[in-house]
Design brief:
21 helices, Thioredoxin fold domain-containing protein, 4 strands, alpha+beta, single chain, Glutaredoxin, 4-stranded mixed sheet
């Protein structure tokens, strides 16, 4: 697919539009691994006239605004006359990308056909399940929250405990206040039994962090307090950890670096074994965006909490980068050398550690 150019046979074919950006990592993977695939080329050339556009410039920017593209890569499908058929996205294997094209031509699966059925009043449980599971609805979060809630209302308490419904709730990426997120947070033992503690903790962290980020952007301290009260109600046995996480993420989104460092240090002292990711993330953000040496120095105990729980190549490299920025190059080189040894032992690429060592030794 050439930029701004159509590929495939002309005529009364449907159209496929690929939205991308040079800064989109999954877009790079699709261009490298999926679009050149012979089966992908055969299917799309046979059924679509294909176009692509960079949404950062020109016509691509206008199209992104017109069709509400919020994440990349994005795939839009149209009739030959230009009527929207289907929408999907994300990096994916060739087989799934071909299935997207097939779904676009199947009225029972095409996103905009499903949306028309919803607008016409279909509220049957099977339809609500299918519509809220359609990849295209991910670009319309308010609608996703609404449809998910409507589907859950059709299910009895017993039906909610089925494997199908637990998978449905677990795989929804919806806001904290949505019925699906509320059910997930309130019934964690059932999800742990099916998906494992690590996966459930990760999803909980993401839901709560996203809610706190939104409040931080609005400088809504009252909202943060309400979120923390809600956490206490939904997760009474884990409330302290998740309430403190909400505080940390609220301060992160405000870029209140001094308060963020202190809150993260306090969080790590108690919860590092359960949540190394938040501490790793804090160190990475501080190293990237903070230049105050006194503040950066307070980040070192944060990453050391992480390393004490998980002595991995990534965590060691994160500390080495911080030490390098602090001007402690002898210690930074020692830590980076250990990271290099871990990569070599694990048989993974030593490229990052090697590059960092070269930078430190300049």
């Amino acid at each position: 697919m050439g930029a701004g150019a159509g590929h495939g046979q002309k005529g009364a074919q449907a159209h496929f539009f690929y939205a991308w950006s040079p800064s989109c990592g999954p877009c790079v993977g699709m261009s490298r691994d999926v679009f050149p695939d012979s089966a992908v080329a055969r299917y799309y050339n046979a059924h679509f006239v294909s176009y692509k556009a960079n949404i950062d410039e020109g016509e691509g920017k206008l199209l992104a605004a017109r069709y509400g593209i919020q994440s990349l890569p994005a795939y839009l499908y149209f009739t030959a006359e230009g009527k929207p058929l289907h929408r999907s996205g994300n990096g994916k294997p060739a087989a799934e990308f071909i299935q997207d094209g097939k779904d676009a031509l199947d009225p029972s699966k095409a996103y905009f056909a499903l949306k028309d059925r919803y607008a016409a009043g279909d509220r049957t449980a099977p339809f609500l399940y299918a519509f809220s599971s359609a990849p295209g609805i991910m670009q319309e979060q308010a609608l996703l929250n609404q449809v998910t809630g409507e589907y859950l209302k059709t299910q009895s308490a017993k039906e909610m405990t089925s494997r199908r419904n637990l998978e449905y709730v677990f795989n929804q990426y919806v806001a904290y206040e949505s019925p699906a997120s509320q059910y997930f947070l309130q019934h964690q033992p059932a999800f742990v039994a099916q998906f494992g503690q690590e996966a459930v903790a990760k999803k909980s962290r993401n839901i709560i962090s996203n809610a706190a980020h939104t409040l931080g952007e609005k400088n809504d301290l009252v909202g943060l307090g309400n979120l923390q009260k809600s956490i206490a109600r939904l997760l009474p046995t884990q409330a302290k950890q998740w309430q403190e996480l909400a505080q940390v993420q609220y301060l992160l989104r405000q870029r209140n670096w001094p308060a963020y460092v202190d809150a993260t240090l306090a969080y790590g002292k108690e919860f590092a074994p359960q949540d190394t990711y938040t501490l790793y993330e804090a160190t990475a953000f501080l190293t990237a965006f903070v230049n105050d040496k006194a503040l950066l120095a307070k980040a070192d105990p944060i990453i050391q909490q992480v390393i004490a729980a998980e002595r991995s190549e990534l965590n060691l490299l994160t500390r080495a980068k911080l030490l390098h920025k602090l001007g402690k190059d002898t210690e930074a080189a020692t830590v980076a050398t250990e990271a290099l040894a871990l990569a070599t032992k694990a048989g993974t690429s030593p490229e990052d550690a090697t590059a960092l060592l070269a930078e430190i030794r300049k």
